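> example.struct
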């Protein structure tokens, strides 16, 4: 069977920079930082990083209560992002209510806020009567996909990827595979995440958070920079509409890009340490799937979170594959690390770069670290023809994902 072509026809975002994919792009273009000090987190003993990139959620009551009551903030944001994505694609809710349409979304876990709330309610007296039934639907690992399926009445594939920071890029890759193999015609793919001190605390225990800039939040995170000292957790949601090319063409859709290559694979190594060789295999696998080589990539959006070891490993891997020929940047200096949403959110911004004919630099990259010097860092806005991009997402557990998209 001949594989079908898969295109992106819509996208929507709720990001730390505001509502809308365009607002995300404009905030990056204007060099805005969404990172804030969270003074209330100081009540947690042993929590060294007091920084986050939060979202201001608006209009949640526009979602009818019968759907909203099972949604935590991450599902609310995902629903709002999906609404924007469908409107952007010119697809109505009625068009996606059959068994050829579905969703794949990812997150690190269920709602961190509600999970914490549940423990606080139950544990003091070990009393389960303090919980409500709806709390479970907010905490389950596939909460976002389940809530989107209910809200949009999906009858096709409903799936959830849970691979930490690679979750939403794996979700897009899974949707791509489902459509090109003719199992589905249109899919909503992406991810969502919430911030909470317990989430930052996990990274803090691993010495992976930024701790030197608590009183200077706009100066961190610093992907690839010589003064980088760790990541900053962010939150939000990003959803892309993936569609069979023939279907999109038949309705004269405005096609944002074609997905031409995808690869995901494990390092088979350490549960938390990054592995350059595995990253190299992943990027090469995505290009092999797309039928292109390193010289064909016009821009690479890196995963780089601002950690010492992770950034160095990714820079070494990118350098081994591309040398210093492809422009590279990470967007986490603007919005923090939105974890399960990051792959989709940063891909959305990258697709707008391709559409606008420009490559945007990272924020807080002043002097690249010596261990990150093998690649071509964007130092400023570059106006250039961008026909093909690669997006990386690398996660704990040695889970790697890379995707190649090109202009149609």
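> example.seq
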């Amino acid at each position: 069977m001949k594989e079908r072509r898969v295109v992106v026809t819509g996208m929507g975002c709720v990001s730390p920079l505001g509502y809308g994919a365009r607002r995300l792009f404009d905030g990056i273009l204007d060099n805005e930082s969404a990172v804030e000090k969270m003074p209330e987190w100081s009540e947690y003993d042993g929590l060294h990083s007091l920084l986050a990139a939060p979202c201001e959620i608006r209009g949640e009551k526009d979602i009818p209560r019968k759907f909203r009551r099972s949604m935590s903030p991450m599902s609310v944001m995902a629903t709002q992002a999906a609404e924007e994505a469908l409107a952007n694609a010119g697809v109505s809710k009625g068009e996606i209510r059959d068994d050829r349409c579905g969703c794949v979304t990812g997150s690190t876990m269920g709602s961190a806020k509600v999970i914490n709330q549940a423990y606080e309610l139950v544990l003091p007296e070990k009393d389960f009567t303090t919980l409500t039934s709806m709390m479970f639907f907010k905490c389950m690992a596939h909460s976002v996909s389940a809530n989107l399926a209910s809200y949009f009445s999906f009858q096709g594939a409903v799936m959830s990827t849970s691979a930490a920071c690679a979750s939403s890029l794996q979700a897009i890759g899974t949707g791509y595979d489902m459509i090109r193999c003719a199992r589905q015609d249109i899919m909503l793919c992406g991810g969502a995440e919430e911030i909470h001190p317990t989430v930052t605390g996990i990274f803090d225990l691993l010495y992976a958070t930024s701790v030197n800039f608590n009183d200077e939040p706009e100066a961190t995170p610093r992907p690839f920079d010589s003064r980088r000292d760790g990541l900053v957790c962010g939150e939000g949601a990003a959803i892309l509409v993936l569609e069979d090319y023939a279907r999109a063409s038949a309705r004269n859709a405005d096609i944002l890009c074609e997905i031409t290559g995808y690869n995901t694979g494990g390092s088979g190594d350490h549960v938390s340490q990054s592995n350059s060789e595995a990253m190299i295999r992943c990027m090469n696998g995505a290009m092999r799937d797309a039928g292109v080589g390193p010289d064909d990539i016009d821009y690479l959006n890196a995963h780089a979170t601002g950690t010492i070891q992770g950034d160095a490993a990714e820079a070494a891997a990118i350098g081994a594959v591309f040398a210093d020929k492809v422009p590279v940047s990470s967007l986490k200096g603007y919005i923090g690390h939105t974890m399960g949403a990051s792959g989709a959110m940063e891909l959305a911004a990258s697709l707008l770069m391709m559409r606008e004919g420009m490559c945007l630099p990272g924020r807080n990259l002043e002097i690249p670290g010596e261990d990150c010097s093998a690649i071509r860092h964007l130092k400023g806005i570059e106006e250039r023809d961008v026909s093909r991009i690669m997006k990386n997402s690398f996660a704990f557990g040695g889970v790697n994902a890379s995707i190649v998209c090109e202009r149609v």
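> remarks
Residues 260-406 form a domain with the Peroxisomal Thiolase; Chain A, domain 1 fold (CATH 3.40.47.10).
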